[in-house]
Write a sequence for this structure.
């Protein structure tokens, strides 16, 4: 079974790719929700602006047995890590297909002048021994949490919103940040310093707008709630939720941050509670919100637990220098 490049996949190849993802999901239903066929097609054909992708597959008797996608953010040769995702049908495992796809991706990484690659996988799955036997090391633990909105006691959100700290006021917008708050929001995004290492470019008004435009181009809706300090010009904290157009029952938590000098005043839980109140009126079809938290981010975990989020799974981010790959 040979690896073939699938960089311009045909409709039939996209359907086959989706078949692999469905079979992998069927073998581990506790993992991520299975994607819809349109989501698979959207990812294979579109990808994210600002990032290129390379695709490979392993055909077996007219079907795909395994697939690999490599996301290459930024220009060739940048030191931002690329991202690899390999999926092998459960019936085709332990025959070296994963290793062969990784070797093909390593060729793509070298051709693009990359020095490192990351992979995000669920704890306790075969991906862990697979990656660890190929030069990857765990660099980050993320807790996947889920909030079921109809399980929240009815008065909790209203109470948390009413208990907001003195000297701050809430603002909110859908889509791209209003011009007058763009720079202030970029400053607040710096507060997510723990992730900066993986994000590459520094935050400025341009990048903030561009990120929101990427979400809109996918057809998804971005909602932001922010707390301004008494000057009205500083974003002290903010939270973002994305409602995907193709799975509207489950929304995704994007960034939440409180600037260091404004921490310890319950701003994080305030903006998040205000977001839930807004969504309940604006998007009543949203029943669940998912979020990933750094395993060592105790404050954010505590905020999420107080709101009613429960840990669903633990995911791990692995990283390898390209020089260690097969
Ligand atoms: C992780 C995954 C891609 C591995 O694919 P695979 O084709 O079975 O892997 P390979 O046969 O190439 O395995 C190569 C080596 O990895 C290690 N390995 C792979 N699966 C393993 C397992 N279940 N237990 C222990 N070691 C394992 C072994 O060292 C293996 O060599 P060996 O078979 O000679 O002992 C596959 O299990 C999968 O699709 N999982 C679900 C999706 C996923 O989590 N993808 C990871 C994202 S990168």
């Amino acid at each position: 079974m040979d690896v073939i490049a699938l960089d311009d996949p045909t409709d039939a190849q996209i359907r086959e790719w989706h078949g692999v993802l469905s079979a992998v999901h069927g073998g581990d239903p506790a993992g991520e929700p299975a994607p819809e066929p349109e989501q698979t097609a959207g990812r294979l054909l579109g990808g994210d602006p600002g990032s290129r992708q390379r695709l490979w597959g392993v055909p077996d008797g007219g079907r795909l047995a395994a697939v690999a996608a490599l996301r290459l953010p930024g220009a060739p040769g940048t030191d931002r890590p690329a991202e690899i995702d390999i999926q092998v049908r459960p019936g085709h495992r332990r025959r070296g297909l994963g290793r062969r796809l990784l070797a093909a991706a390593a060729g793509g990484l070298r051709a693009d002048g990359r020095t490192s690659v990351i992979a995000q996988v669920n704890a306790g799955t075969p991906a862990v021994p697979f990656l660890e036997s190929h030069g990857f090391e765990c660099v980050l633990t993320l807790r996947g949490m889920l909030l079921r909105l109809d399980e929240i006691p009815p008065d909790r959100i209203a109470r948390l919103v009413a208990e907001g700290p003195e000297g701050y006021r809430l603002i909110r917008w859908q889509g791209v940040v209003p011009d007058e708050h763009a720079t202030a929001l970029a400053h607040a995004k710096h507060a997510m310093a723990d992730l900066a290492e993986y994000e590459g470019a520094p935050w400025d008004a341009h990048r903030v707008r561009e990120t929101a435009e990427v979400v809109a181009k996918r057809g998804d809706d971005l909602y932001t709630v922010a707390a301004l300090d008494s000057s009205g010009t500083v974003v002290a904290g903010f939270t973002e939720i994305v409602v995907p157009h193709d799975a509207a029952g489950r929304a995704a938590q994007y960034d939440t941050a409180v600037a260091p000098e404004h921490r310890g005043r319950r701003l994080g839980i305030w903006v998040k509670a205000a977001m839930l109140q807004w969504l309940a009126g604006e998007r009543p079809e949203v029943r669940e919100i998912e979020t990933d938290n750094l395993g060592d981010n105790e404050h954010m975990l505590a905020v999420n637990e107080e709101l009613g989020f429960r840990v669903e799974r633990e995911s791990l981010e692995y990283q390898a220098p390209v020089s260690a790959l097969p």
Remarks:
- The mean pLDDT is 92.
- The longest strand covers residues 137-148.
